[in-house]
């Protein structure tokens, strides 16, 4: 990087940092070092050329002044910087119009700072700008001419003091718009109703679709107050008022419904939770109940009901046949001899409810073990099919696939017992990390490679039996006590219809499936793996994004040139993860989520490709395989 650019960057940071102490350590940012060679904190450079691509300081407690002229008047920085991301600090801005010189800028994020004043008109000359987030500041004045920027896809400006009307954005191009809680007024321009009311709420002067207040009540020159009340007395409410009041009535009714539903739910949760179906729980529903989620299962009556109606097995082998009062204990020597009564008596805590049942954390004092018990509802697989599936799964072991250690099966109940995994799921890791902690690239790549390898093994072993995972997703990837990822619930659930293929209920219909259907069930696992890879790369949850697409559809819709700035998790960019390898992994993920199941690669090809990327990454970093790292 040129000396003049280094000088410019250092002055920029001096202005930015202010007097308060920073909340995170910062290295580099000295005139005798190079931002690209010496990995300055917050700087990411291009892979091929030594020039600065992005400057990111989020939540650093920066309390100085953002002066874009210091960097944007340097020609080489102005020609290279694409991302400036300074959210969640205490910054004020000065000479913001100079930002227009950073012509390559695609992302500008300064939310949650103390910026004030009018947004300079010159910023609308940033022709490459894609995403702008100036929310939670004190910007005032008009929204400027941002709509002129044809490629703008995100305009997030809520919680400021912006006034005037909303300009005519090309709404069909926007993926995200939020101007709520400002002082904007007038009608929402045509096409603005593509966004929900929440994007506009909190601007008393705004009217029109999707807000409940129609513009007819506001647009005509308002008559004097006296005249208005006279008119009203004479004519009763006009059409616009009727519309407005019915809008209010609807909103009121909706709120009423929500409250009623919540109250009902509350009542229901006050009923005791238990691992047995309602009809078989012999406890009186009037019984007082501790509303905490810690539950003690079952009275003697309950046990006798379940026991009398069920087949209960014991021993290390399913073949050993029924023995009273124990579960079928399959694998773990630690839980050998675990008895059903023990499970029922142990205190349990609800971990969560999924689509197919609830999972409880159960503490078995006698065995000194923490277990996770999944109670499955609506599973119509007959007992003998269920047992033979368990038996088959019990013979296929992989270190990264969590085994069922015991199970219980009656007509009414199916319980699956796992060892409790103390470190949560990948879903939680990716989408529920406390701010400031990052899940670094090599760990993500490690997770991808471990899961792909384990899935390849399971598919190979269980293809003949027609047993795919069936419900692979990030909440079913759990971290064990060594922070190693493992696949949970292999082969137990119905196939999730995530790739829009005709729903196949593997569990209920295995025997009736033809080979093509079985093959497409395995291909659905590949789709699911692709979604997990996308979650790892984007840091985004798999559900519908705010543009109405799910994660896979959204990523596929982004053109390759935009991957770096649009798709990849900003934490990875910030960390300086290799763009080339992220692109390679993304290409694999995109193949996995191909709409046509036949075009998806085989699991063995995928495992190999991911492993190659991982090896390359390890070579380049010269880091020996470390299990996992969370950095503050
Ligand atoms: N063995 C385990 N150890 C620790 N936590 C677990 C274990 N098994 C499941 N969980 C956690 O319990 C919660 C509920 O799990 P569950 O499988 O019911 O939900 P889900 O995966 O969202 O839905 P489903 O699998 O029914 O589609 C999840 O947060 C999951 O990560």
Automatic annotation (TrEMBL):
Single annotated GO MF: protein kinase activity
Polar residues compositional bias, start-end: 212-227
Subcellular location: Membrane
Region named Disordered: 212-236
Annotated ranges, domain Protein kinase: 345-610
Alphabetical UniProt keywords: ATP-binding, Leucine-rich repeat, Membrane, Nucleotide-binding, Repeat, Signal, Transmembrane, Transmembrane helix
PROSITE patterns recorded: PROTEIN_KINASE_ATP (PS00107), PROTEIN_KINASE_DOM (PS50011)
Name recorded for this polypeptide: Protein kinase domain-containing protein
Highest taxon of the lineage: Eukaryota
GO CC term, one of those recorded: membrane
Transmembrane segments: 242-261
Lineage: Eukaryota, Viridiplantae, Streptophyta, Embryophyta, Tracheophyta
Protein residues bound to ATP: 374
């Amino acid at each position: 990087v040129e000396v003049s650019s280094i000088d410019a960057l250092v002055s920029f940071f001096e202005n930015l940092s202010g007097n308060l102490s920073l909340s995170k350590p910062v290295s580099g940012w000295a005139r005798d070092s190079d931002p690209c060679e010496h990995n300055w904190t917050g700087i990411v450079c291009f892979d091929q050329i030594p020039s600065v691509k992005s400057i990111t300081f989020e939540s650093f407690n920066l309390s100085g002044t953002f002066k874009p002229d210091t960097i944007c008047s340097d020609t080489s920085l102005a020609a290279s910087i694409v991302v400036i991301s300074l959210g969640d600090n205490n910054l004020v801005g000065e000479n913001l119009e100079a930002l227009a010189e950073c012509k390559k800028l695609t992302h500008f994020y300064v939310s949650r700072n103390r910026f004030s004043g009018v947004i300079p008109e010159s910023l609308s000359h940033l022709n490459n700008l894609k995403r702008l987030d100036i929310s939670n500041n004190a910007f005032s004045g008009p929204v400027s001419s941002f709509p002129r920027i044809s490629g703008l896809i995100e305009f997030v400006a809520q919680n400021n003091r912006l006034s005037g009307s909303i300009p005519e954005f090309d709404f069909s191009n926007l993926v995200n718009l939020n101007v709520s809680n400002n002082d904007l007024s007038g009608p929402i321009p045509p096409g603005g109703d593509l966004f929900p009311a929440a994007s506009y709420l909190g601007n008393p002067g705004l009217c029109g679709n999707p807000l409940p207040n129609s513009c007819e009540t506001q647009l005509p020159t308002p008559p004097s107050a006296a005249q208005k009340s006279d008119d009203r007395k004479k004519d009763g409410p006009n059409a616009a008022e009727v519309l407005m009041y019915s809008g209010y009535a609807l909103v009121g009714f909706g709120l009423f419904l929500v409250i009623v539903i919540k109250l009902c739910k509350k009542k229901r949760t006050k009923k005791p939770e238990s691992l047995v179906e309602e009809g078989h729980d012999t406890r009186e529903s009037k019984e007082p109940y501790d509303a905490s989620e810690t539950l003690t299962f079952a009275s003697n009556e309950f046990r006798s009901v379940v026991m009398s109606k069920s087949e209960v097995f014991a021993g290390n082998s399913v073949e050993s046949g029924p023995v009273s009062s124990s579960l079928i204990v399959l694998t773990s020597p630690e839980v050998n001899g675990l008895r059903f009564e023990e499970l029922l008596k142990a205190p349990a805590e609800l971990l969560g409810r999924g689509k197919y049942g609830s999972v409880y954390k159960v503490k078995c004092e006698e065995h000194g073990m923490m277990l996770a018990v999944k109670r499955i509802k609506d599973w119509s697989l007959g007992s003998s099919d269920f047992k033979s599936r368990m038996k088959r799964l019990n013979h296929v072991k992989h270190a990264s696939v969590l085994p069922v250690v015991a199970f219980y099966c009656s007509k009414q109940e199916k319980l699956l017992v796992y060892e409790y995994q103390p470190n949560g799921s990948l879903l939680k890791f990716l989408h529920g990390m406390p701010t400031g902690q990052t899940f670094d690239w090599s760990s993500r790549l490690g997770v991808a490679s471990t899961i792909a390898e384990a899935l390849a093994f399971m598919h190979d072993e269980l293809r003949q039996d027609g047993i795919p995972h069936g419900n692979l997703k990030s909440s079913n990837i759990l971290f064990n006590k060594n922070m190693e990822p493992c696949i949970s619930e292999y082969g137990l659930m119905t196939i999730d219809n995530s790739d829009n293929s005709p729903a196949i209920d593997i569990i209920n219909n295995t025997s009736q499936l033809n080979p093509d259907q079985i093959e497409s069930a395995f291909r659905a696992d590949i789709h699911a793996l692709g979604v997990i890879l996308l979650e790892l790369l984007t840091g985004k949850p798999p559900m519908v994004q705010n543009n109405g697409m799910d994660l896979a559809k959204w990523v596929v819709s982004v053109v390759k040139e935009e991957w770096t700035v649009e798709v990849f998790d900003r934490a990875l960019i910030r960390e300086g993860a290799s763009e080339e390898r992220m692109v390679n992994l993304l290409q694999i993920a995109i193949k996995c989520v191909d709409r046509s199941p036949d075009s998806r690669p085989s699991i063995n090809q995928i495992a190999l490709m991911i492993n190659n990327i991982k090896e390359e990454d390890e070579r380049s970093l010269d880091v020996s395989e470390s299990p996992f790292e969370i950095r503050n």
